[in-house]
Amino acid sequence: xxxxxxxxxAPAGLAGVVREAREELGITQELLxxxxxxxxxxxxxxxxxxxxxxxxxxxxxxxxxxxxxxxxPLEASDGxx
Length: 81
Fold this sequence. Notes:
Elements: E1 6-7, H1 12-25, H2 29-36, H3 40-47, E2 53-54, H4 55-65
Antiparallel strand pairs: 1-2
């Protein structure tokens, strides 16, 4: 079985999207944690950019918040070459 892919620290943009989506839905970190099978501390640390999580948890996160993940090609003009 392949090893899980981990996000070792939440990029600021991703952490912000997660927090904003949760707040817009009016749900607490504790409730979200229960929905994704993680602790409230896990959600809190991730939202602050300190957390570590795996791709499966990110998928559950997206689903519970009404999102889906997508790979989007980088534009040549974004300076990430």
